[in-house]
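Sequence only, no structure available. Ideas?
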Amino acid sequence: MKFLKTILFILVATSFSVVSAETTAEDEAAKLLNLMNYQALLNQSVAATLDMQLQQNPELMPFKDVMLAFLTKYMGLSSVGPGMIDLYVSYFTATELRELNAFYETDIGKKTIETLPTLQIEAMQLGAMLVEENAAELQSMMMEEMRRIQEM
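Reply:
I predicted one. Tokens follow.
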């Protein structure tokens, strides 16, 4: 009987520590999103992505405000935050998240947070420019593939 009580106690204690670890990881992930000023990052990302789409599809320009309102509604932290917390928790342990938080509280971590959105936008622009500059090559490759398919 003592053996069963001991096993039961260990199982209960273990289940509480697992729940506690998950909560801690979620808390750390929420702290990370806050440190990263994730809402501002989302806003910048949405605005930059929308601007790129409008440049590529100017006929959508009259709908810019509507599209921005829609994207802001569904890309806001209240909508995306819980899923982002789950994603961080699925890839990082509570300890790793604490280490990330400690990094983002340093001067270089803060600079990283401030700089990454600009780097990402410029990287997207660079990629778009390279694709545009080499679009003729893609068109040629597609024509060649079309000929190959027709020969089958």
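Residues 26 and 86 are 7 Å apart (CA to CA).
Hope that gets you unstuck.
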